[in-house]
Amino acid sequence: MSDVKTIVASIKDAVDSLSSGAEIKQDALFKSLIGLTKSLETRGDVLLNNVKNLGLINQIKVKLERLIIDPKYKEDVKKFIGSYSGIQDLSNQYFSQFNAKFKPSATANGVKQTAIQSTLNGLFENGINTGVIDGLKKILQTNISAGGSYAHLTEQLRNYMLTNDTGEGALQRYVKTYANTAINQFSAEYNKSIADDLGLEWYGYDGSLLTTSREFCDKCVEKKYIHISEFPAIIAGNFGALGDIHITKSTGLPDGMMVGTDETNLVRRRGGWNCGHQMIAVAESVVPQNIRDTVYATQAYKNWAAKNGKVAKEAAPIVPAKVEQGNKDKKAKVMFNKAEDAPRLIKPLKEYDGSLQDFVDEVMSSKRTNNTVKTLGTMHKDVIADLSSKGIELSTNDIVISDKKILKYLNPPKRDKGAAIDIKRFDEVAKAINNPSAIFTDNNSKALVYVYANNYDDNYIKVIVEPKYKIGSEVVNLAKSIGIVDAINLNDKSMYTLISGKL
Q1: What distance in Å separates the CA atoms of residue 268 and residue 265, rounded to the nearest whole number?
Q2: Do residues 426 and 364 touch, judged by C-beta distance below 8 A?
Q3: Could you count the other beta carbons within 10 Å of the beta carbon of residue 324?
Q4: For residue range 300-345, what is the model confidence (pLDDT) as tens digits?
Q5: Mapping DSSP to helix (H, G, I), strand (E, B) and coil, where does residue 429 land?
Q6: What are phi and psi of 219, to 5 degrees?
Q7: Average pLDDT over residues 454-465
Q8: Which residues pair with 373 in a beta bridge?
Q9: CA-CA-CA-CA torsion for 75, 80, 81, 83, nearest 10 degrees?
Q10: In the predicted model, is pLDDT for residue 451 greater than 80?
Q11: Is 103 in contact with 41 (CB distance < 8 Å)?
């Protein structure tokens, strides 16, 4: 399953490949340019300001354009444009996790065609002339008109054309900047069109920070999760508890942002020219609860919801530790959700206090459920680390199994296939949670789930755990499926990605 980091990495690879080709070409271009300038008339070392020399400038301009846009460059650009389809496929995979029936709309598909045409214009004649050759032309005109020295002209052209201590050469700098901006804007606009279709409201700001990263990007990466209602504030440089950033007086925007950037095009333009970050929609469930609560309590969010015909969401009630409640028959503990000012019971979720096997036996015997769970163990440290890398924070590390999930094992289809565990051996489930041989992520699951695997006779027990699963008003880490598989199944990399241990 594609994620944001995969999309960002693919974009970087495409830009680096095109930029590398441009850098290699610069040495040959500089040598050709010097050869062409030898036709300029001089008196000693001084360039003559005459009609012939001024006329040569246009001839040099035409020849350089042909040298730059040669068959190899055209092939490199073709390959770069081809990467747009790959980025589109990765984005489609990413958004399919939000809706299994998702298909990009005609509007989304049209974004790619428009982006390709715009990119071609920028990387061929029009763009190369404006971004590279016009600069050369200006250097030539200035030196000829002023009667400068030929040696000084050569040095200026060297600094302009070649990568050195002053920076990247003109061709590489232009190609890299334009390509990076174009492909990131395409990806951002494509993703935004899909996010709008799916009604997603939260965005994650992702990508590596460099020493040259703008303050806006630094602060957005630090903030990470941004709701649509916050767009006007961050464009104004206000990042709430993270502080304010500098605003350029001439544009009224954070330093480096494109003139005209506003909340309608922020996702596409992000930090401005050459911004390599992605601002991509995420599911509300991956946004930490405290961040959601902070936004949902703001007037800006409430105004946004009213303007867009949406019902404003309320901050979730604060959930303290479990509160003991006596229960002579079941010895159950009832979990409460408490508001800050007054506790209230919301659809009580009870925890069975006996052994796991006793819990299973009672459920199987009664064939009834009553919203009861049993704690199996805690989240493995490598799972917690993986969740943290995805920006997901847990309110509890406990893993539970519910009576509803146990009851489905009374007569599961898996039992007829020999793929279900013995109902008298449920302790093996707790063992798999607390001492797994290996843990995987399921690449084909719509939801983010973890597969805990452990030895079970000659095969492996497989326990599927979904973090932050909602049962009524409670959010738990739920063991939602249990089965028996062989090593070949778990080692199928198209299905599972190993994150801890080994089989």
Answers
A1: 5
A2: no
A3: 9
A4: 999 999 998 888 888 765 544 443 344 433 333 433 333 333 333 3
A5: helix
A6: -70, -35
A7: 91
A8: 351, 402
A9: 130
A10: yes
A11: no
- Identify the residue with better confidence: 337 or 37: 37
Q: What is 142-165 written as a DSSP string?
A: HHHHTT-BHHHHHHHHHHHHS-BT
**In this model, does residue 107 exceed pLDDT 90?**
no
CA 137 to chain centre: 41
Name the CA dihedral angle for 8, 10, 15, 16, rounded to a multiple of 10 degrees.
110
| Greater pLDDT, 323 or 233 | 233
The candidate with the shortest Cα–Cα distance to 380, out of 433, 430, 455, is 433
Single-letter residue type at 466: E
Q: CA 290 → CA 108, 322, 397, 423, distances in Å?
A: 33, 19, 17, 40
Q: How confident is the model at residue 365 (pLDDT cuts 50, 70, 90)?
A: confident
Question: d(Cα 112, Cα 116) in Å, to the nearest integer?
Answer: 6
CA distance 298 to 497: 40
* Helical residues (DSSP H) of 124-230, grouped into ranges: 125-128, 134-145, 150-161, 170-198, 215-223
Question: How distant, in Å, are the alpha carbons of 32, 191, 345, 456 from that of 493?
Answer: 51, 27, 44, 21
> Which letter does DSSP use for residue 249 in this model?
T
Looking up tokens 């990806």, which residue turns up? 187
Q: DSSP character for 229?
A: G
Q: Tokens in use for 124?
A: 């061929």
Query: For the purposes of burial, counting CB atoms within 10 Å of the CB of 400, is it exposed (0-12), middle (13-18) or buried (19 or more)?
Result: buried
Closest CA to 133 of 167, 162, 171: 171
Give 390-419 pLDDT, tens digit per residue: 888 888 889 999 988 887 765 555 444 456
Residues 6+ apart with CB under 8 A from 87: 7, 10, 11, 14, 183, 186, 187, 190
- Residue reference for tokens 């600069």: 135
**pTM score, whole prediction:** 0.57
The rounded distance, in Å, linking the Cα atoms of 196 and 343 is 38
On the CB side of 172, CA atoms within 13 Å amount to 22
Alpha carbon distance 218, 100 (integer Å)? 34
Contacts of 5 (CB under 8 A, 6+ apart): 206
Paired tokens of 485: 């598989």
Q: Name which residue leads in pLDDT, 409 or 24.
A: 24
Tell me if 293 sits within 8 A of 284, measured CB to CB.
Answer: no
What length is written for the chain?
Answer: 503
